């Protein structure tokens, strides 16, 4: 069966065209460790890792690329921040569209939080922000964009307001939109947790943190182990990036991400325009479809290419299965690891069917998805009406 991949919100596919060859070349020719070996290939590999670190520093506006540290993914990076900064005596503010990558660590560690309300489109409401800040409040943790509604948050406005109250600003950039780049320095952000396998088009298993210099000093590392530096000491080095990079990193993943960043640098504008055009095409159909309810903003200017749809009166899981059976359309159905967001959007516990296109999605695939959706809905509603008549 031919398939139409519309699950880029989970992971981008296909990866950037140069990623596979970069990873293969590394594994075949240079797969040695860094910080351990005193020979040329080890130094060459260290240089490749530093090259990726430099690119990410530029991408996220860090003053020093040493403030870019690698992790397994954005979830591990967020755990580093939450476990390394807060205790149950503290208090943080989160938005109403947060992912479990934020909500579960807070809950597991017993860290009190208050949810900043969002409107029906998932946009954070800041009018009552000051009333939510207490003497114990230390930070605001907010997703740059929702993995459920696609809503892009006004991060700069949030950061400015938080700084007026002396709060740290932590951004979950898992769903970062290329059209709205963030800068640690320019936007007064203390930490950005990112992943390499979604918008950045790299392989799974590599993400990390970008921090301000002051923030890096505040965080206590939750993972400890070998770094290849200060090996005579039984505590983690205080300097970056070693402080947060215990053990061997995912070097093939880092090399693949570096290649993906090169591809993005050359094609960023074209990718943004392409995704906006196709998002508008699919979004316009679902907004006009009376048997569907779009979750989140109705215009592409306010959202990413993630489009979540509820089908009232039908089982969303059956709709998703019907689309796959009808035309090989691969979506994600359910709560998307974000029950807090679905509660905010009024779609808990049934969830939604999420369509998330990417740079490689074609106009023909979107047209086929629209036509397949019409056929599946016609069939399911006809079947439903027949059952009612009986």
Descriptive account of the structure:
This protein is an alpha/beta fold. The chain folds into 2 domains: 4-12 and 268-380, Alpha-Beta Complex (Aspartate Aminotransferase, domain 1), CATH 3.90.1150.10; 19-261, Aspartate Aminotransferase, domain 2 (3-Layer(aba) Sandwich). It is 40% helix and 14% strand. The protein is built from 11 helices and 13 strands. The protein has helices at residues 19-29, 40-59, 74-85, 100-108, 129-132, 155-164, 213-218, 251-288, 316-327, 339-345, 363-389, and strands at 4-5, 68-71, 91-95, 113-116, 137-143, 168-172, 191-195, 207-211, 293-295, 306-310, 329-330, 332-334, 352-356. It starts with a strand and ends with a helix.
Assess the beta-strand content as a share of residues: 5-15%
Structural class: alpha/beta
The portion of residues assigned to helices is 40-55%
Low-confidence stretches: none
The third-level CATH topology of the largest domain is Aspartate Aminotransferase, domain 2
Encode the helix/strand succession as letters.
Answer: EHHEHEHEHEHEEEHHEEHEEHEH
Give the total of domains.
Answer: 2
Mean pLDDT: 95
The second-level CATH architecture of the largest domain is 3-Layer(aba) Sandwich
Write the topology of this structure:
Layout: E1 4-5, H1 19-29, H2 40-59, E2 68-71, H3 74-85, E3 91-95, H4 100-108, E4 113-116, H5 129-132, E5 137-143, H6 155-164, E6 168-172, E7 191-195, E8 207-211, H7 213-218, H8 251-288, E9 293-295, E10 306-310, H9 316-327, E11 329-330, E12 332-334, H10 339-345, E13 352-356, H11 363-389
Parallel strand pairs: 1-11, 3-4, 3-5, 5-6, 6-7
Antiparallel strand pairs: 2-8, 7-8, 9-10, 10-13, 12-13
Helix pairs in contact: 1-8, 2-8, 3-4, 8-11, 9-11
